[in-house]
Specification:
CATH topology: Porin
Distance between the termini: 46 Å
Order of helices and strands: HEEEEEEHEEE
Radius of gyration: 21 Å
Strand order of the largest sheet: 1-3-4-5-6-7-8-9
Number of helices: 2
Shape: elongated
CATH architecture: Beta Barrel
Strand content: over 45%
Length: 240
C-alpha cells in the first residue's frame, strides 16, 4: 500500500508542477505530438535471486508534450507517452546444462514525465532532464526455452525453478522513471535522443506470504529517438 501511495503522490506532484509553474516565469503554450522508437534492456529484480543477462527488445509509441513556461533559464513542461514495450528477463544459466531461457512480457506503458530543458527553444540544441511516474498493463506473455543440451532444471542455483511452471500473477505494474536527453529543434519539428532508467515498485509475481518470490519487480534501461511536431506555439518574436 505504501508503494501505491508513493506513485500516487508522485503523479500529483507532476500535475501540480505543470499547473503551478504556469503562474510564474515567462508563460509558454507550446503543444507538440509525435512518435518515438528505440530499445529496452530489461530484467526483473527477483528475491530469491535469479542470475540474468540484460534482455534486449524494441519499444515504440506516441508522445504528447506541453511546454508551459520558461523559468529563468529552465524551459518547463510535461510529456505523456503511450508505448508498447517488450520486457521480461533472460536468464544466465551456469549449471553446465547448456539450457537457455527467456520470458517475454509485452506491456502498454504510460510514462508521465515532468520535463526541464536548457538551451534553444526554436532552432538549435537543448539539454533535457525528465522524471516521473509510469504505469503499465501486461497484454501478453511467452516463454522461450532451448539451448544445446536437454532441458534440465535439476542443478539450478538454490533450486529456484518456480518461474518455469508459473506465469506472472500481476498484469498491472507501476514505478518511476528518469533520464537525460539531447533535443534538436528545427522548422520541421523536434528530434530528441534520450536515455532513461525505469525502476519498478510493483511485483510481477505474488509477493504475499503465499507467493514464492518476495520481490519480482521490473527494471529497464531505455534508449529512444523521439520526433515531435508543433500543433501550437507561443507567439513571441523574442523566443529563440
Amino acid at each position: 500500500m505504501g508503494k501505491v501511495r508513493y506513485i500516487f503522490l508522485l503523479s500529483l506532484f507532476t500535475l501540480h508542477f505543470i499547473s503551478a509553474s504556469a503562474q510564474v516565469g515567462e508563460r509558454r503554450s507550446d503543444f507538440s505530438v509525435g512518435v518515438n522508437a528505440g530499445m529496452t534492456m530489461s530484467r526483473i529484480d527477483f528475491t530469491p535471486t535469479i542470475k540474468q543477462k540484460w534482455k534486449n527488445a524494441p519499444t515504440a509509441g506516441v508522445s504528447l508534450r506541453y511546454i508551459c513556461e520558461k523559468y529563468f533559464t529552465a524551459i518547463c513542461g510535461v510529456q505523456l507517452e503511450l508505448n508498447y514495450a517488450n520486457m521480461g528477463w533472460k536468464e544466465l544459466i551456469e549449471d553446465g546444462s547448456l539450457n537457455e531461457y527467456q520470458h517475454n512480457i509485452n506491456y502498454f506503458q504510460l510514462p508521465m514525465l515532468m520535463q526541464m530543458g536548457w538551451g534553444r527553444e526554436r532552432r538549435g540544441f537543448k539539454f533535457v532532464f525528465e522524471a516521473g511516474p509510469q504505469i503499465g498493463i501486461a497484454i501478453s506473455t511467452s516463454e522461450q526455452k532451448g539451448g544445446a543440451g536437454a532441458w534440465d532444471i535439476s542443478k539450478r542455483p538454490n533450486n529456484v525453478v518456480y518461474q518455469y511452471s508459473h506465469d506472472i500473477d500481476n498484469t498491472f505494474e507501476y514505478g518511476i522513471t528518469a533520464g537525460l536527453g539531447l533535443e534538436f529543434s528545427s522548422v520541421i519539428g523536434h528530434f530528441i535522443l534520450d536515455g532513461r532508467y525505469y525502476y519498478g515498485l510493483s511485483d510481477t509475481y505474488d509477493s504475499s506470504k503465499k507467493g514464492f518470490f518476495s520481490r519480482s519487480a521490473n527494471s529497464a534501461i531505455v534508449v529512444k529517438l523521439n520526433y515531435l511536431f508543433d500543433l501550437s506555439r507561443t507567439k513571441n518574436d523574442n523566443i529563440k
